Amino acid sequence: VAAITPLIEQAFLEKLERLTIRWSKSFPGLVGGHNTSRFSGPGQEFLDHRHFHHGDDLRAVNWRAYLRLEKLFLKMFRIEPRVPVRLLFDISKSMTTGEDAPKFEYAKRLAAALAYVGLVRLDTMVIHPFHSVLGDPYTCSGGRHRFAPAADFLMKLEAVGSTNYMEVARQFVSRYTQRGLLIVISDFLGEGCEKPLEYLAEFGHELFLVQVWADEDRTPPWDGELEIIEAESGERLELDFDADARDRYQSAFDSHCDGLLRVALRHGGRYAGIPTSLPIEEAVFGPLVRTRGLR
Amino acid sequence: MHLLNMSLGEFLGLLSAAGGIVVALYLLDRSRRRVLAATLRFWTPAERPVESTRRRRIRQWPSLLLQLVSILCLLLAIAQLRFGSREDFSRDHVLILDTSSWMAARSRNAPLIDQVRRQALAYVRALPATDRIMVVYADALATPATPFDGDRGALERAIRRARPSHSALDLPQALAFARNAQRRTARRAGEIIFAGAGRIAAGDNAQKIDVPTNLRVLPVAAPTENVGFRKIGLRRSTSEADLWQILVAVRNYGSRPQQVDLALQFGGAPAGSQRFRLAPASEQEATFDLRTRAAGLLEARLRASSDPFPNDNRAVLELPQLPSLSVTVCSEGASLLRPLLDAHPNVVARYVPAAACPPAIEEGIAIFEGIAPAQAVKAPSIYVDPPSRTSPIAWKNTAQETRLTQWFATHPVAAGVRAQDLKLDSASIFAPASGDVVIAETGQGPVIVAREVNPASRMVVFGFHPMRSQVRYELAIPLVFANALRWTTPSSFQRWEMYAESVGSVTVPLESAPPEGVRVTASDGSVVPFTIHGSTLRFFSGQTGTVRVMTPAGEQVHSLVLPGVPEMSWQPPASVKRGIPAGQSGPPLARDLWQWLALAGGLGLLLEWLWFSPTSGRSGLTRGPDRRIVASNPIEEPVRRAS
User: Fold this and answer.
1) Tell me, what's the pLDDT at B48?
2) What is the pTM of this model?
3) At CB < 8 Å, which residues of chain B contact A?
C-alpha cells in the first residue's frame, strides 16, 4: 500500500480503511466484508493482518501478536465471494469536460477510493469501463495490497466514444446474470440514461448512482453568443445565452438530477451527485456516506 | 523618427490592409465564443435564436488588441523604424587611398598597397550599411574612383582596383579635395579617411598640412629606407658630334648610409659604372661620356644592399640616332666656303665643280657658289652670289660700294644679327617676289632673300659672296650663314637633350624661345598641356612615358621613367583618430529598432496564441469557467428526503 499510485494519497487511503461499501439487498452467494447475508458460504483461509479498528470482531484479533507487540491486529481470511461489487465506469468523451477539475480524473479518483474500500473489506471489485459498449472488466480482490493494479488500470483508462446506456445495460445484463451491488460512476448527461438504469434495477441489481459533474455542466458561466460543441458527437449549437437562459439551463439540469434520484430511490438504490469542485475526500465522507453508499 | 524601407503612405497602407484582415478574421472566427460541453440536452431549452441583424461583437478585446499591436510591431520592423531624421541617419565619408609610387614598396614580401586595400576594406565593412563613401585615389593628383556610393560591392571593387602609380603623394591636395567633396556634394559629412603610409615629397611641408578635424588615419607599416635615381640627363656635346654627355644623380632617401653600385649599359654593352657611398639623406652625381651616333637603349641600374623600393633603381632611355648634315657645294673653282662649313662638326661637306654638280640633291643641302642651275632644285639650297641671268630671285641690278642698312631680325636667318654698316664691295640687288622674305637690304634694295616653297624646300639667296669682300671679317657673316643652314635644314641642327625624370610636374627652363614656337607632345603624339611663365615651361604627366618639348632652339626629350619618390613621412597629429572603428564611428547615428520590434511582434503573437488560441484555456473554445460559480448540490435536499 505504501507504493500507492498518485491517484489517491496515502493519508486518504488510511482514512478510507474505516469505510465499508454498503448495500441493503441480499444476494445469493458469498459476500465479503461486513455485509450480512442470509446465504451461507464455504470456510475461510487466513490472508492478512490489519490494524484493529473500533467495532471489529474481537474473535478475529490475533492475541499472540498482541501479547508480543501490545498492538491489536485483526486476522483476515480469504473467502471466495460469489457476489462481487461491480463498478460501471463511464469513459465517454463527455467525461473530459471541465477545465479546472476534469470530470474524468475526478471520477477515476472516486472509483479508486471505492475500489480501495471494497478491497480493504475483502470484497471482490469488478470495474467495467463503458462508453457506447461495455469494455473488458478488471477484477480485483484479496485485500488492500491488490489495490495498486486496480489503480493502474484506472489510470490507464482514456476517454473515448460516446455513451450508449441502453446498449451497455443490454450487454451487462446478458453477460452477468448474477445480481449484486452495481455502482455506476458517470455524468449521466447522455440522452436516455434513465430507462437503462431502470432496466438494470428491475433486473435485480442494487443501484448506487454516482453522478459527477463539472461546475460549468450545471451552471454555464458564459454570456452572449455561444457556439456549443458537444464533446461526444461534435454537434454544434449556436445560441444567445444570458442570465435567464442560465436559469432555464440550471433548472433543466436539476430536473435531470431529480430524475436520476427518483430512479435510484424507486428501486431501493442510492444516488449521489458530486461536483468536481468538491474535494474528493469531502465527496467520499460527505455525499457518499450520507447517501448510505458507504458507512 | 523615420522609416527606412518604405514611405509613410506605404506603411499605412500595409497596416490598414493587415489590420483589416485581422479584424475581419477575428469577427468571423472569434466573435462567437465556442464552448465545449458534455451535452446539448440542457442547452436547447435555453436557446434563443441569434438575431441576424445584430452586429458582431468582439468578445476578446485583449486578443484583438494584442494581434493588432503585434502586427504593427512586425510591420514597423519590416519598415525598419529608426529614431532620428533620415538626414541624420546617413553620413558621407571620403576614403583616400594612398596610391602613390611608394605603395609599390614591399614590406614582408608584399607590396604596401595590399595593406592599404585590407585596411580600406575593413573600414568599409565596419561602417553602417547606410553610410555612403567616396573612394579617392591619391598620388600626385586626387582622382575620385567612385561618387558617394552606398553600394558596398562597388566600393570594394574600387578599392581592389587601386594600384600604385608612379607619382608621389600630394597629401594636402588630397585632403583639400576630400573637404571640398564633403562640403559640396555630401548630405552629411562623415569622416575623411586616409589609408596609406603618409610618405610625402619634401616640397610638402608636413607641418603646414591642414589636417581636417574629421580625419581618420588607417596607418600602414611602411619601410623608410630607399636608394634610387634622382635624375638622369643626356645631352649632345656641342664640340663633338658623336658624344653624349650623361649626368646621373643618385640619392639616399633613408636614414642609414648605403653603398650602391651604378652600372650603365648601352645596347647591352657596358657603358660605365661607379660605386657610391651615400650618407643618409644625401645625393651624389656622376658624369659619363658615351660616344655613339647610333640609336639604342641606355639602361642605368642601381644595386643596393637593402632597398625595399626597387622601382627607382632602373631607368631606360632611348637614344636617337645623331644626324649629320650633308652639304653639296657646287662652285666654279675652289670653294671659298670651306672654312665656314668645316667649322661645324655636324656638317659633312662635299665640294664638286660646277660641271659635275648633280642635277638633283637627294640628301642634305645644296650650296651653289657663283652659279645657279637653270632649273631650281627641290632640296634645301643656298645660293651665293648667283649669276644675274639664272638667279632664283629676280635680279634687279648690281650695287657697288654699298652698305647693309637693315636686317629682318625676326626671321630665323637673321636671328641674333645686330651688325650695321657692313660695307659690301659689290652686291646684286634682288626684286623679291610675293612671299619672299627680305633678310637684309642695302639702300638700293634687298641683298639677302629667303624663300620657302614648303618646309622641305627652303632657299636663301645671297646677293654677294660673304667670303670675298671685307665682310668676311665680320662676326655677323658666319652667324648668318649658320642661321641659313639651320633654317633650311632645321632637323640637322637641333639640340638634343634627354632626361630621365620622375612622373608628375616637370619644369623645363627655356633659353630664349618665343612661347608660340613651343610644343609639348607625348609619345603617342598627343598634345600635353603646359604653361610658360617667364623662361620656365611646366607640364604635368601622371603616367610614365616620353614627353617631347620642342622649341625652335631644339628638342628636349623627357623620359618620365622614374617614379616619384617621397622623401619624408607625415606624422598625423595625436588628435587624429586612428585605426578601424569598433562600431559606428562618429557621432551617434539613428538607432536600429527593427530587432526589438520584431521580437515584440513575435512575442505578442506567441502570447496571443498561448492565451487565446482555441487549444488554450482563455480561448473562446473554453472548457472552464471564466468566473467561478460555486455550484450548489441539487441533491442535498432529495438526499435528505430519501433518507
Assistant:
1) 56
2) 0.47
3) 31-51, 57, 59, 617, 620-631, 633-635, 638-639, 642-643
